[in-house]
Every structure is written in structure tokens, then in C-alpha cells.
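Researcher: Go.
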Amino acid sequence: MPDPAIPTSSAHGAPSARAELPKQYKPTDHEPRIRQKWEASGAFHPDPSRVLRGEAKPYCIVIPPPNVTDRLHLGHALNNTLQDVLIRAHRMMGYETLWMPGTDHAGIATQAVVEKRLRKEGKLKGPLRESMRREEFVAIVQSFKDEYEATITGQLKAMGCSCDWQRQRFTMDEQCATAVYEAFFRLFRDGLIYRGKRLVNWDPVLQTAVADDECYEEEIDAQFYYLRYPLVHSSLPGGTPLRGVSAHASERRATQDAVPVTWSELRARGWPSNIAPEDADHADDKQAWVTVATTRPETYLGDTAVAINPRDPRAKALRGLSVELPLIGRIIPVIEDDYVVLPAAMQDDPDDAAKDPKAKYATGFLKVTPAHDPNDYEIGVRHNLPHINIFAPDATISDKHGWSDPTELKGGHKLLGLKRDDARKLVIKEFEAHTVGGEGTTPLFAKSVPYRHSVKHSDRSKAVIEPYLSDQWYVKVTDDRLRGSALAAMNPEQRTHASTSNGTANITERKPTTAYGPASTPAASTGDLTFYPSRYAKTFETWHENIRDWCISRQLWWGHQIPVWSCTDAPQDCLDWLRLVAGETCYLTRVDNSTFVCLRRQPELDGDALLIQRRIELCGFRRDPDVLDTWFSSALWPISTMGWPKETELLRAFNPSSTLCTAREIITLWVSRMVMFNRYFRGQDLAASGGLPLRGGRNGPVREAVSHTSSGGSRSDAATQGEFVPGPLPFRDVFIHALIMDGDGQKMSKSLGNGVDPLDIIESHGADAMRFVLCQMTTQTQDVRMPVQKGPNGKNTSPKFDIGRNFCNKLWNASRFALTMLEGSQAASRRSTETTKKSLVDRWMLSRLAAAVEQINTALANYEYSDYATALYDLMWRDFCDWYIEAVKPTISTSTYQRAVLAHTLESIVRLLHPITPFITEALWERLKDIETQPIPGVELSPARIAGTLATAGWPRVEASLRDAEAESQFERLRSLVTAIREVRAQHNVPPKRRITLHTPTSFSPEESALIETLAGVESITTQIAPADSAPFIHEGLELRVSNLADAVDSAAERARLEKAIADADKAIATLQGRLNNPGYAQKAPPAMVEQTKSQLAKAQADRESAKAALARL
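Model: Structure:
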């Protein structure tokens, strides 16, 4: 459409004398040039002031920031293509559109990759912390990050991503880091960040805690080891308990004086007579034992109890007793817990026993190691058991991190310094060498049996994860100010439970507000968060209903270092001074015997913060060396990228954003946390600015907490009192896209060699071809399969991308042909008598265009990408190329109106296609915008906001009044007839240029006859009887014939064709009759559908009779 300088009477601007488009579309001739054109124009750089002044509605997507660990893969290409489709479509619809780009520092992933590279290059030989200074390593990682960030940016640009590249962010840049430290300070101040000793996933190679999403399960062949623990009395004479877990002399003496429990005594206590403790020596005077089964015998060093199910008939006899751990002599109690699996023989229901894979291995006794097993940890919490960590951070046996009784007297010291596998072997060896009670013939080791089970591994180092007890920082996401506000935000139609509160906070929801500017915001608060497909709302809901506090500390060097300093013996005068200065700049609290100080790190406060930092470090405070979990900064992405905590124009205009497009595996890890953080921090901001004050509480900062429990209890005056009012959502819609699998249904990966590099596809097929295929494959049902094969260049590709390349070639060739007709007809029209009559084919084409625009708009609104691509494919290839262009060839030069319909339809198609195939459409529009035609009432193609760029041109608006049911029905009959004639020509190998004669029992209007002649290669249409050598065919129950085939009719082939037509009709008749004879269908189907089925049956019966008659005549 024309630029604003073009007169309104001209729909496309002034004519331009140009050479024809090249015969072939070569993406490499256009894509680099067009990318430069877009960037130079500023088309992707929105102005937030237009939103705040009410001149435009906002549409915003924040890109899921890719990790700076490697190049982007095809999954990234899919995700970013889908986002770009939405962004480009809304930009053309007139929205002020922001697509915020950026990358993620990906703490553990990047550090692991860089460490691996350094070791491969021989620059790192020993442990990282012993071989390199922190600053030196961070500088190396920063250089690595710069390299891959540039690569990723180049890939996104090559894909055609219309991001605002002037606002590109990185999760560790100064702006985002400011947001991270502000968020940490507020959560710390409000009692929502605490330090606690918990069980975490520990990577012994990288020596850091890792999240569940950074692990994977792998089945391994292992052994179940059966160990005998000797039974002893649980107290000394006088009732002194024997639960010693340290190496103090008194406890060592207690273990030496432990009184064994004999089998006779155990039977007297009620041990069932029908249960023998295996084929071993259990004579009355021998020491009794219990047998535990474990896959990890080395962890027995950290056992603090043996558990038995209270339903076990042996439980009564063991009540009040203990066991003595061999080699170390620790006395631990026998406890009762329902978690313990009963042996299969003891279970009441054999079916239940058969369903439980552990039942056949179970002994009924569970060694409880709270510091090294998640389930044991829970048992330990329930029974208040000690937690004994037996490992060093590198997963070697150690007595320096919690285990303190490896006495030489018993032999436990032999295990110190051993790796897990080596310790396991030695434990088994020692158990085999020793007997129960140190006498008799019953060894401590009973047996081992093969067992295959799943073991958690670190995704980065591939090491087996160690459940590890350590001090970590946590966000109290179980608090309803976070968890509850996220649940309350869900679309009520997608909720399955009504409850949103666990009683920890009083939440009042804010009504939709215009506090962010006069333009309507894409998301408000309660009930706005909607998932597409809706099934993923259940994932979000279930996660929050069962959420656990979030471990946010990582023992790494690459990341945001935790802004907390601690000291166990700080001078009193230093503490007094800190209490005086605490508030806006710092916040302090005490945990056990330590004082923790959190500094607020903002540019405007940095002077004060640095002063405090120097002072407290002189007092002996040391900064926590850990960094924050990557997801902490990612959770702030929708606001940190826009300048938060400052109240910037960008933040006010584009937060809440509109849509998030992401993968299902990070709903819990990223989507959840963005919702919680956005609502929490923006709610505080609105309250502080007076937009909607917090009712019943104070808004100002709290100076110092009275107490802070290590288990995560809230500080008494740190949390805001009264009602908490959540802020807006970070986005309204969440679209979860499918995963791309190879042809065998396997996930694409480097290790499998089945991955496809998007740049390879762009090089071989073009970015548009790739984008079109990815959209066409994206449905809301299942993951998609893409067959992978080696291309001629030896790189992985897929034949599916040929579909996209063929589509682009078809568009180019059709546009080239149409432009020839349009540009050539402009001069011819000045010398001829023209008509402005609306022909049947013009009415049909405009009706099809109107239907397609409606279908496309609906598809985009509902994230139905496949429907969008399919509608465009049918409109461009079938309706426009195959039928309309062919139909208007004889008349275009003499019809002003038809020329306008052709130009407007082509340009509408090009505009509708632009979001999915931006490069080729931009190249075509450079020519289309200069075509001059008359306006078409009902078709609005508004000019580009930035001259010369289709990216900012208006989205086609086609009025519903152009829908013409009569024209569509009439043309559909003609199209069906032409298709039938073309099939006859093909069957008889009639050359395309040969004109044939159509014999028909019915007559056609002159316009219809002209279309049939043009589209079917017909010389004439007659009602006269056809000659004997003509070829019959059936159309709408009537027999028609074509003649003048130049002896092309093959009687045998014609007989076979008619017989097949009869067989097809018989099959259709049987199916339709069966449907109508089904009482359920006749009673339940809509009446219109039943009538349609009856009509189809009548047509099939007529076709059969006509085919039979033709066969008889033949």
C-alpha cells in the first residue's frame, strides 16, 4: 500500500519502471539486505510514550533468554519463530510492539562448559578453586559469554526475529544485576529469604547444589546388599540413652558397654515364632540382629535409626531396642514408620505386593540415613533424628563435615578419604569378614541380589548426584504472598481447586487497574493467567499446591554473588552501629550465633553500601561466596529488562507483557517464579507509589528482625503486616509449544547425532522456508516428528523443509507473473475500453480472501499456528495461484476492477504471510507498493508507519460483507467440473495445449462458459450428442463427455476408470447408508448433518448409475 505521501485515490503508489523480478527466488540475494534495512529503519524499536499517551495499545513478549553455552538449535528456532509471528502480526495490527531480546548467564551450565574447555586445553588441571583465582575465572567466562552471545544474536537475526536489538539485555548486565540485588534485599527484609540446613541435590564434580531440572534419571544395573545389624539394649543401667552420634569418650565407652539382645530374649518380647531371620545361626544364646537391604551400603556410616513398619508383626518385639552399627559402634534406635515397605509375604493383598517393585526385595527393616536420602530425611524430621553427613564436597568419605565417630577401635577410620564406590566395596568386605557379636558363624553380610533402578545424575558433569546436607539460602515460596498470589492469578476456568491459601498470609486481590497508563493493559491480576493448551494449567496449579521452598544458592563462581555478609563473633560496637544505619541501605538479622547483613546494591545507594561493606569487613564480616540460582535472575526477566526497580516508561508501558511462549519443562522452574515475583514486587511498587496502598500495614522498610529461624520461620516484624495486595501478572497468556522429535520420536540432541542446525536449513532452504514448516507443524496436540537425514553437504536436514521452499517458490513465481500482468496492464489500460463489472471470479476471490482473513485472525488469537499456516497455504496456492490467476488471464488487461482485485488480493496475501515468511514478503512488497490500482471497497491496506517497510504496514482488514455465498457456491461447481475435465485429460494423456470439446446435457451462462474454457482447455461447450470416440465422465450425477481428444481414448483404460468409479461409489453408498441406518446417528446428530449425509448418499447413487450407463454404452 502507498506511503502517506501517496494520494489516497491511489492504492499502491506511483508506477515504477522496473525490470522483471528474477525468475528464481534466492534467499541469499535478499535476506542480508532486508535485515539491514529493518535495523536501519528502527521498525522494531517501540516508543513507550505512545502507549502512556494512549496513542497505541501495547503488545509485548519477553524472549525466553537462551543460555550462552552454545549455538541455538531447532527447538530455539521453533520457539522464536512462533514469537516472531505474534510480534509481527501485532505490529502490523497497529500495536506498539516490543519483543525484548536477551541471553541468560546460565550459571552452572556455563561454568561447567568453560571448566571442561579449560581442562581440554590444559589450562586447568586440579580443582578449580585451587588452580585459579575467582576474578581470573570470571573474566574467562565473560569472554566465553561474549563469544556465544554474539553467535546467538546472529542466529536470531538470521531467522528474521524482529526483536528490539537496541534494548538487548543479559541477566548479569548492570541493569539486570541491579534488579537481582534489589529483589534479594526486599525478600530478605520481608522474611522471605532465609538460611537453612536442608538436603539438596549435590554435584560432587562441580561441588555445588543443583536443581531438579539440572538432573536426569538413568537406569543402572546395581545390587541390593543385605546387611545384618546387631541388636542391643537402648540404654545403660540407670536408663542413660545410647543415641550417641559423636566421638566423645563417654559415648565411645557407652558403645563398648552396650548389652546385646539375644534371640531368646527377643522371642520372649514377642518375636513371631513363624518368622525366622534367614538360614543363619539364631540359637537362643546368640546375639539377635535385623537385616536391612540397601543399594548404598557405604552410607550406613550416617545411619541414625533403623525403621520398621508398625504393621509388621515383629515391631512389638523390637520396641525400645537399638542396633549397634558395625565398624563404628554407634548405637541407634529402632523406630516405627509407615513409610517402610513390608516384605511381599507380609502384605495383606498379594496384588498390592505384586505392584510394589520393592516388596520382593524388602526385609521390612530400613536403614535411615537422613543426611543422604530424601525419604530418610523426611523420616528423620518426623522422628527428630540426628543428621550425619559422611561426605566431603567431592563425595569422598570424611569426618570433617558432620561424621565424628570413625574410631580406630572399631575400624571405621579405614573408610576415610575413599570415593563412594571404593567405600562401598570396603564396607562389604568388612561386613563379610566380621560376624554378628564378633563370635559365631553368622557374618554381618548376608547376601546381594541384582537390582536395576533409576539413579539421578547431574546434567552438566554426568556425575551421580549425592543427596547432601548443607547450609543453603532459600526463598520461602510456600508463603501465600508468593504461592497464593500465583494460584489466584489463574484463569478460573482452568482451575480445578478453589482454595488458594495455606493460611500464611491475608491476600486481597486488586481489581483491573489503569495505573500503568491510559492504554488498556494486556493483563491485570486475578483470573487473567491463561495457558494454551489448557492442559498445562494443571501443571502450574499442582506445582503451587505442592510447592517446597526454593534453594537459591549455588556453590559456583559464575553468577550473581549473594549480597550477604556474616560473622559469628562481631564486636558489639559494630553491631550497635549496624543497627543505627540499617534500613534503606542494609538489613541485618541473627541466625543461631551468627549475624547476617544484607546490603542493598543500587547505583544511587552504592556509596553508602560500599561504606558499610568496608566497615563490616573490618569487623570480621565475610561475604557469602555462593552465587544465586540462575532461575532467580530469570524470574525477574519481565521487569529487570525494563529497568526495574526504577519506574521507567518502558516498565509502565510494557509490564504486564502480553504473551509468553515457552516449553513445558520450565513451567515450574520459570513461569511459576516469574508470576510470583512480578506480582510481589510490582504490588509493592504500586503500594509505595500510592497507586493502591497496602491496607492495615506499613509500607516503609523494616530495620531489623527480632528473630529468624533456620527452618524458614518468618521474622516477626520483617513481613508486611495486614493484607498483602499482589501486583499485576508478568503476562496474560502462556503458550506451551510442542517439542521437535526426529522421525523415530527421539529428542534431538548432539550426542545422538540427530540434531538439525537452523543455520544449515537457512543456508540450504532460506529462513522463510524453515519458519513456514515450523509453524505448519505446530499444533496444540502432540509433539511433532521431523525425519532427519544427511543432505548433499553432509549436514543434517529434513525433507519437510522442502515444503517450505516449494511454498516460497510458488509465491515468488505467482507474484512475478501477477506483477507482469499488473505492470503491463497499466499502460494497456490507457489504450483500451475497460470494464468495471464485478465478475464471478472476482467476487469469489474476494469472498475467499474475507474467509481466510477471518480464519487467520482466529487462529492467531488462539495460538493455532498450524491452522494459520494451512489457511495461508490454501489461500495462496490453491485459491489464488491455481484458480484466480489462471481465470483472469484473458480479461485482466481490459478490467480495471479485476486488476484492482488482483493487486489487493496479492498484497493482502503478502501482508498476511509477512509474520511467517518475512523476507520474501518484504522483497515482494518493495514492488507491490508501487502498483497503482483503484480502491476495493471492503479491503483496507493501510500504509506503512515507517516508509518503505512492510514490517510496519497495516494488517489487511477485509469486511465480512465481501463474503459471497452465492459466488462461492457457483464457482465451486465450476471448479469441481474443471477438476473432473482435467482428470479426464490426464487419464488420456491429452497435451496441455490441445483444446477439447465439452458435451453437456445442461447449458452454462456466457461467463461460466468462458471460465470453463479458460481453466479446462476447452475449445467449445455444446449440448450436441458426443461422437463415439469421446470420453465420458460423471459430474453431479450427470454424464458429460469430452471429444476432440485426437484418438487419445483408450477403451480398456476407460473401462477400468468407469469400473473404479462404480466401485468407489458403491463403497461411499455403503458407508453413508450405514451411518443413516444407525439409530444413534439419526437421533443424536444435528438435523443439518443428517440432511447433508442424505444429500451425499443421493449424489453417490446418481454417480453410480451414470457410471454404469456410460460403461454400458462403452
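Model: The chain has a mean pLDDT of 86.
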